[in-house]
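Allow me, if you will, to draw on your knowledge of protein folds for a short while. The matter concerns a single protein, recorded as an amino acid sequence and a row of backbone structure tokens. Kindly check, if you would, that the fold set down in the tokens agrees with what the sequence suggests. You will find the record immediately after this paragraph.
***
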Amino acid sequence: MTPLLPSPAVQPMTEAVFSLTLALLFLAPLVIAGIALINTGLGRSRSAAQALLGNLAILAVAAVAFALVGASLAGGLPGGRGLAFHAGGAAWEWLHVGPLMLGGLGSSPPQAQLGLLFEFLAVVLAAMLPWGSGADRWRLSAGAAAAAVLAAIVFPLTAHWIWGGGWLAQLGINFGLGAGFLDGGGASTVHVLGGLSALAVVWIVGPRKGKFPEVGLSTALPGHNAVYVLFGCLLALIGWLAWNAAGAILWLHAPLTSLAVTAVNTLLSASGALAATYAVTRIRFGKPDASLCANGWLAGLVTSSACAGLVTPGQALFIGLVAGILTPLLVELFEIALSIDDPSGAITVHAVGGLWGILAAGIFASQAGQLVAQLVGIATLLGLMLPLIYLLFFLLDRVLPFRVDPDGERLGMDLHELGGGAYPEFVIHRDESYR
């Protein structure tokens, strides 16, 4: 079997394909539910209610911000105009300015409407990823404001460049680099952007109190509910199968006969990653680590977002194995060597996993120049989007401080921000650890 690449001629969407894609998109929010549970379970018990409410609030804020502003910049709606610069004898579109507040959505072609729905789900998920990395010390109001910035500015730009006919998508036509930058499931627009946003948040808010003592190694602050985390992984699998299949239809223009292979590749990538992480933690610690295995599973799913519709099953399994090996090693490296306190592991799982998936899609592509196109996309994400995200968050932190005050962190985010805990009948922490 040769890897699937997008058809050069996009055919009009039939009613059957429209119905199937819509049904898949109705299942895709299970990814969002799974990530919300994982974010909550990997945090401390005294912040559980704030964590889950934060995921819900971020979902709402991101959806509203994208509807009001972001969708007009993403390029999926009719009307408006594109802004391009000319280089190398070709026009490179870098920005689209369309109608605000979803103007013209009802009269859009069916595929454009489904593409916009996909982008709504994508922007919500991208905005939720940094929330888990800032757990136990990131204020809810600041998290919601950061979600609005991502949904109104950062995500639309990247989505337009990749999915909306922008300059990264034009690399194939203008420069002969394969089929242009390819990302059927949002590894770049969702996972790398979300993971890089998590990195910016961790840099700004700093580590949790007591995580890195002045003397000795970092302190283990395990998540409070492994059942939430593992059940969230199962929910995410269901949604991811639908998500990758819908993305293959919308962005890779894949035929229906390829969707079963896309689903199999998604499952194999996650399974290979879990097996590899299980083995690494078993060798490293003597017993498998539940939270790291969950992160390995997610890393396999993240990598599949970039390449499930582009590779063979054997290649998908290999890609997942690599992701599963890297995940526990990088989590430990980031924590011990770089003093990065990332409770949810979003930096490793989503940023690194997404980058590896994008790279693997180019490595195993059959078209000449595809690897170069993928590398250009990676360079753009790291060299342009990461500094932009950090700058926007840095400025936002000056207006609306991200980190809670020390007393609030000691009490827990539930009591400090919500006035009540998630588990009022249980003693959930001792103050002695914060003296």
